[in-house]
């Protein structure tokens, strides 16, 4: 079982989510160069490696492409099958919340029984 809190994101996941939103909003278009790792690290107040991790996530999703010595460019603004991925994540969260609800109901039931005794 994971020890991460439900909904908790790492810094690189937050940066990737921000960049993804900027791609989807049209701030960056296909072929545009995004800011350098150094610039993004300064913007987010983090290490360059954190930005690199975020960019690599977006590269795996097919959204960005890095060209050594040149920079990182927008490959596409929306990943194929992105909606189904979000739906899968939503289903996982719903299942996890249902489990939490069942445990809470059991605790409340046992407390009510103890008070009635």
Task: Outline the secondary-structure elements.
Layout: H1 11-25, H2 37-44, H3 48-60, E1 64-67, E2 71-74, H4 82-116
Antiparallel strand pairs: 1-2
Helix pairs in contact: 1-3, 2-3
Explain the overall architecture.
- The protein folds into two domains: 71 residues, Arc Repressor Mutant, subunit A (Orthogonal Bundle); 37 residues.
- Helix content is 61%, strand content 7%.
- α1 crosses α3 and α2 crosses α3.
- It has a two-stranded antiparallel ribbon.
- It is built from four helices and two strands, in the order αααββα.
- By secondary structure, the protein is mostly helical.
Condensed summary:
This protein is mostly helical. The protein has helices at residues 11-25, 37-44, 48-60, 82-116, and strands spanning 64-67, 71-74. Helix content is 61%, strand content 7%.
């Amino acid at each position: 079982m994971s020890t991460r809190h439900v909904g908790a994101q790492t810094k690189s996941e937050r940066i990737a989510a921000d960049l993804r939103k900027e791609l989807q909003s049209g701030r960056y278009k296909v072929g545009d160069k995004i800011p350098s790792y150094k610039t993004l690290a300064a913007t987010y107040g983090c290490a360059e490696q954190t930005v690199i991790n975020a960019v690599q996530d977006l590269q795996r999703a097919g959204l960005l492409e890095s060209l050594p010595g040149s920079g990182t460019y927008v490959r596409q603004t929306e990943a194929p099958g992105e909606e189904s991925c979000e739906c899968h994540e939503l289903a996982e969260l719903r299942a996890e919340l249902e489990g939490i609800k069942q445990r809470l109901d059991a605790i409340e039931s046992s407390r009510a029984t103890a008070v009635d005794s």
